[in-house]
Amino acid sequence: MRNPINFLSSTLRADVKVTLWLGVAFVLIMLPNIFPAFWPVYRPGLLLVALHLAGLLLLPCLFGIQVRKILLLCWPFVCAAPIAIACYLTTREQPREWFFLVVVDTNFKEASVFMPQIVSCGLLFIAMVVAYGWLMSRSAFKHLKLGPVSRTCVVICALFIPLGTLFYSNMVKVWEAEVWRVAANFPVGTIIGGLQAAHMSYQIVHRGNVAKGLVVKSTAEPPPKGKREIHVLAIGESTRASSFGLNGYARQTTPLLAAQSGLLNFHDVVAPGPATTISVPVILTSGDAASVQSSSSLPSILNVFKKFGYRTYWISTQLQHGRWDSPCSVFAKDADEAKFLSGEFSTNGKTGDEAFDTVPDSALIGAVSSVLGRGEEKVLIVLHTMGSHWVYSDRYPAEFNCFPSDPAICAAARRRATPEGNEQLRNSYDNTILFTDYVLSQLIHLLDDQGAVSSLYYVSDHGENGGDTAVEPFKHGTLTEEVMRVPMCIWLSDDYQAARPRQTSALRSHLKTPLSSDTTFHTLQDLAGLSCPLFKPQRSIANDTFQPCPRLVIDLGGHLGDYDQMIAPTGTGMKAGPP
Reading across the β-sheet that carries 229-236, which strands appear in turn? Predict the structure, then answer.
């Protein structure tokens, strides 16, 4: 008969060994949750969440499910882990639907900025797959069973956070926090994000009948007889408010706009999100940050104007995605006529890096002039610009290199910051705004020459971090003050101001009002004296009944918050939800 003490001792030693092997396996599976606990600073709370999620994954093993089956089912998570880590390095967030949509929406030249993360992701993928495969081939995993030590560890990991929070909260809140915790972290959060991205893509592709049955009415007197009515919405790209000369920047980057009569500049405007795929759908529809996932299924401002008899145009210097339209360029289908002046990705007759080149925004001037030359009575033109998007030096011609910068030094500085490189990046970025100033000024002159009741509404989709930002300098995608605060200005022709004094007066009264660009859909309708069932006069800054409301913003991780409560006071990123 075996000595009971020796038997218990050997059993426990074997079980401890099993527990250690399981720990190694779950480090690989949970690496996207473990990594943020140590980078860029140590946060033990995140490490506890990773242990908790590992315990939940093994919980079925307490009821007879084989451990090996659970581990084999985790193979896809191991393969996806490097992508989640690369996402975190880039955005400081776990991948959500917006991350997947941004990946689909990008091109090689844009993605090359993140080449260190991409290369690291590839190498990590190889290392993790090999390591996990080696673990699964070990004899210790073939007939693995949980013993008393490993079972105890699983129970503690699975229950210690919910039981701990139960001491100072009720069961309902504990359950809500637990659901959020699972859904916000890898791997469940990544799966949910992928499914939501697929759903949004489906909405985008099948938005052909979105305006069916939409009724649009007039709320204003028509223009004087013989006067045309022309409205232009110019959507900027990656332009931050703090670098706009009109907003008090030390450099005068907007001298032409500053001298333009009839221009109204709004000093405190925030974007709904830090990426184009979030902000542009909100600008074009009645959606906001809280309902951004449904924006792609809502009628756009193009649909509204078109229903009322306007001839609508979409003119873009960004590349069209062709078959796989992005959540932004898909709105071009709502227009009577769409032009992508830079062509489509990889189908513009060019090869290599040149396949991703875009024409300068000045190409919009000729395109708009051609449209205006048709003499149509009522016109809406939506312009989607490249603005200040990286590569900065590609956004302006050589004669606009007023703040000297070398493209080679700028490219190197984006990879590795240096004082000289940061200054050159700042110069190059400011040159893009100088060029935007020129393009907008020329567009205004074109409209002014028409002698029409006309307006030009300019707002950037989001901003860009500066060189002093601790998180992702000279990039966007993060909820920082520089990314979220955007320039916005509206030009009104003399004929417009005479024909629509109510709207003109209301706009002037809101120059310093804290605003969000999610008011654009409602304001544009008010400017044109239109109203549809989705129109809310209290959300239009061209209306006397405008009511300021919380400026909601959403990050690439799907976290929703109030800009003025969570970002503006600190100038840093928004805090997430429950721990």
Answer: 337-340, 311-316, 378-384, 229-236, 453-460, 485-492, 263-270, 515-516
Do 243 and 180 lie in a common domain?
A: no
Note down the domain range covering 127: 4-201
Q: Is residue 341 part of a domain?
A: yes
Domain count for the chain: 2
Which residue has 């629509």 as its token pair?
500
The dihedral through the CA atoms of 179, 184, 190, 195 has a sign that is: positive
Please, which pLDDT band fits residue 109 given cuts at 50, 70 and 90?
Answer: low
Closest CA to 188 of 80, 101, 112, 106: 80
Contact 342, 318 (CB under 8 A): yes
Same domain? For 124 and 9 the reply is yes
Q: Could you please report the per-residue DSSP string of 484-525?
A: HEEEEEEEE-HHHHHH-HHHHHHHHTTTTS-EEGGGHHHHHH
Percent of the chain exceeding pLDDT 90 equals 46
**Using CA atoms, how far apart are residues 343 and 322, in angstroms rounded to an integer?**
9
56 and 153 part of one domain? yes
> What integer pLDDT is reported at residue 204 of this predicted model?
67
- pLDDT tens digit sequence for 8-19: 455 556 567 667
To which H or E segment does residue 226 belong?
none
CA atoms within 13 A on the CB side of 186: 31
Of 162-166, 522-526, 552-556, the poorest mean pLDDT is in: 162-166
The token duo for 250 is 């030390």
Tell me, yes or no, whether 180 and 284 share the same domain: no
CB atoms within 10 A of CB 172: 8
pLDDT in tens, 279-321: 999 999 999 999 887 887 899 999 999 999 999 999 999 877 5
Same domain, 192 and 236: no
222 occurs within a structural domain: no
CA dihedral over 378, 384, 388, 391, signed as positive or negative: negative
pTM (predicted TM-score): 0.73
Same domain, 289 and 385: yes
Whether residue 578 lies inside any domain: the answer is no
Distance (Å, rounded) from C-alpha 71 to C-alpha 25?
8
Distance CA 434, CA 427 (A): 10
